Amino acid sequence: MGDETQYMMRAIDLAKRAEGYTSPNPMVGCVLVKGDRIIGEGFHARPGTPHAEANALRVAGEQAQGATAYVTLEPCNHYGSNPPCTEGLIKAGVSEVVYAVSDPNPIAAGGDNKLTDAGIKVRSGLCTSEAADLNRFWLHHIRQRKPYVVAKFASSLDGKIATRTGDSKWVTSEAARMRGHDLRQACDAIIVGVDTIIADNPSLTARGKLPAGHRQAAHPLRVVLDSSGRIPLEAQIFRSTTPGKTLVATTATMPALKEQALRGRGVDVLRLKADIAGRPDLSALLSALHERDVLSCMIEGGGKVLGSFFDAGLVDEVWAFMAPVIIGGDAAVPVAGIGAENLSDAFRLQNTEIEQLDGTLLMRGAVSKQNSEVTCSQAS
To answer: Active-site residues: which are they?
Structure first.
């Protein structure tokens, strides 16, 4: 047999083609191999469409008899919008199934036992870390019952996001900004504060590189934190020509007339309990988004909003863009809030990777929950 790792990594690459399109489902890829030759492959493209195994089996046809299936996630064992993948594999007569990550969803789990009972050899654990990273949003959603939070910010080399006059366009390179749009497309929601809307009037849409087979970008749900209803009704995110949906998270302080006006523009208004500072409670916001099947949130600003998420311990991952520019002066910083009192209390990243994007550096990594040592690797 050929290199099993190669087959599973091919399945992972296939799954990633649908990044940003499968939520609230996971991304799944499948490769069927027989006699050291790939005879079928497929991936799950969108909710309601055939699963990866079904697509691969369709390509393989009768050749699937006696083949080995490499799947990024344990085959599902329940009826939803599609029949169980276990039944398809059993009916096709595959001899072995190798999967990377076990399914933690109690509704769909049990595929391993079902296949084993049918006489199919089943193995797990191949390329587990890579497959788990691919579906980190979905796995977090299932296990923690709240969205996975990615903090994204861009700054100069001396940690400034604008000059003292507020000039901020553009600190980073065009390549870096497009990489940020890739993250927007991958996430279900993008969260900003009302000050960002007032100051920059952004559209908060995704304009990244589209994956194979997709003609339109997947635009995240726009979530604006606005305690008292200061958001302008003429903001670009409310324009009928701006794709995607908008939700304004507020408190009891917002005037009823402002809520009515927002709803008249097709905006969803979510009133939440206020925290001690009178702002929408962030834990309550994440719980509400979880109930709406939002798997992941990207926090993009401003500094107070980013700081509040860090202070609350709600950040799971960081994307930090650093431009080779020195701004100096008393300018705004990307992460404000209360911050750490001691260095030992500071948030540290683990499993970090660094990308070079036309002069701008991107450091990204998971927030360590145990203050473990920072590790770093180069990514091309």
So the answer is: 53
Interval 144-195: pLDDT, tens? 999 999 999 999 888 888 777 777 778 888 899 999 999 999 999 999 999 9
Token readout for 117 is 């009972």
* Prediction pTM value: 0.90
The rounded distance, in Å, linking the Cα atoms of 40 and 31 is 6
CB-CB contact of 281 with 273 (8 Å): yes
Looking at residue 13, the DSSP 8-state letter turns out to be H
Considering Cα of 180, then 182, then 187, then 190, what sign does the dihedral take? positive
In the beta sheet, which residues pair with residue 320?
153, 363
C-alpha to C-alpha distance for 43 and 200, rounded to whole angstroms: 38
3-state secondary structure of 134: helix
**Spatial distance between the Cα atoms of 44 and 67, rounded to a whole number of angstroms:** 20
Sheet containing strand 37-43, edge to edge, reads 37-43, 29-34, 68-73, 96-101, 121-124
Q: How far apart are CA 288 and CA 248, in angstroms?
A: 12
Question: What are the C-alpha distances in Å from 21 to residues 28, 223, 266, 301?
Answer: 12, 19, 23, 24
Instruction: Output the CA–CA distances (angstroms, integers) from residue 57 to 82, 85, 169, 302, in the order listed.
Output: 14, 10, 50, 48
What the block records as the tokens of 330 is: 């008393």
Q: Could you identify the residue written with the tokens 């587990």?
A: 128
CA-to-CA separations, 356 to 13, 211, 353, 362, 376, in angstroms, rounded:
22, 21, 10, 6, 14
